[in-house]
């Protein structure tokens, strides 16, 4: 069900981007947007993992560098039937973790120094099981594609706004007049917001799925629930200063601060809902 929902949402993003391309430049603009989407997804597929790991200064480790953490990941991957991912540590005191990579054969998991300090081995196991669940479910690629589409739609929206303000040439040629100008401006404003909301819906649905799959991988739903409580409080007390909105969806808890209206635009589900679902899983076991 979650996979079907994700496919539908990604299809909506594709249609929205192509429609905006058509508004920007007719059929040629539509084709340009389609080619742009293909190109960006190709780039994202091959290079997004290297970019995000470099962005956060992640350092790859082996079994001799941090035996407990490395072996914990190795045991979880073996239990889940996954290839051993590369393991990284991020030099940040803010407690958090993420997974990246285009598929299970080219995956990586990363944890901050802060998370390694505050979690018990069982809680850390729950967190890394969550990240391996993202690898198993191919959520990293899905999230990257959604973010890429949303960013491209926002860029096209900006181009539409400038075009509507300075020219409106196509409106004159096609007889659109004021109505065409208003329509272009409306699409330029509404479409990027719609794309952002769709991207966030994709992210939230995959987080719920990763919590459930991760709890199955480690066999300890309550350990993951306990870890989420600590991480939620820790990230609020010590937000990750180097975090970027474009990559916030990758982390197990939102690395960015924000309350009030910003909660409506979160890439993560409400923490109390995630914890409640895990506690219900523990009761059913």
From TrEMBL:
Output one GO MF annotation. Answer: metallopeptidase activity
Keyword annotations of the record: Cell membrane, Hydrolase, Membrane, Metal-binding, Metalloprotease, Protease, Transmembrane, Transmembrane helix, Zinc
Peptidase M48 domain location is 71-281
Binding-site positions, Zn(2+): 130, 134, 207
The listed locations are: Cell membrane
Determine if Kinase is one of this entry's keywords: no
Quote the cofactor binding remark.
Binds 1 zinc ion per subunit.
Q: Which residues cross the membrane?
A: 31-48, 140-164, 176-198
Q: Which HAMAP family match?
A: Pept_M48_protease_HtpX
Q: What is this protein called?
A: Protease HtpX homolog
Organism listed in the record: Geomonas propionica
Lineage from the top down?
Bacteria, Pseudomonadati, Thermodesulfobacteriota, Desulfuromonadia, Geobacterales
């Amino acid at each position: 069900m979650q996979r079907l929902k994700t496919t539908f949402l990604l299809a909506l993003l594709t249609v929205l981007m192509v429609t905006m391309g058509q508004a920007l430049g007719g059929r040629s603009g539509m084709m340009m947007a389609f080619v742009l989407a293909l190109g960006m997804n190709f780039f994202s597929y091959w290079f997004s993992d290297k970019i995000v790991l470099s962005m956060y200064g992640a350092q790859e480790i082996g079994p001799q560098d941090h035996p407990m953490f490395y072996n914990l990941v190795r045991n979880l991957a073996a239990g889940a039937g996954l290839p051993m991912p590369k393991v990284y540590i991020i030099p940040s005191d803010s407690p958090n973790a993420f997974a990246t990579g285009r598929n299970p054969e080219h995956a990586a998991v990363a944890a901050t120094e802060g998370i390694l300090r505050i979690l018990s081995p069982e809680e850390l196991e729950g967190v890394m099981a969550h990240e391996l669940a993202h690898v198993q479910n191919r959520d990293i690629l899905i999230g990257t594609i959604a973010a890429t589409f949303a960013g491209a739609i926002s860029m096209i929206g900006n181009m539409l706004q400038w075009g509507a303000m300075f020219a409106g040439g196509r409106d004159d040629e096609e007889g659109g007049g004021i109505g065409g100008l208003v329509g272009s401006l409306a699409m330029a404003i509404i479409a990027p917001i719609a794309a952002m909301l769709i991207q966030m819906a994709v992210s939230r649905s995959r987080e719920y799925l990763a919590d459930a799959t991760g709890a199955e991988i480690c066999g300890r739903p309550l350990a993951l629930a306990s870890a989420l409580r600590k991480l939620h409080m820790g990230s609020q007390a010590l937000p990750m200063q180097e975090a970027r909105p474009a990559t916030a969806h990758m982390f197990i808890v939102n690395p960015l601060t924000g309350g009030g209206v910003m909660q409506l635009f979160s890439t993560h589900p409400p923490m109390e809902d995630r914890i409640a679902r895990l506690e219900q899983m523990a009761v059913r076991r």
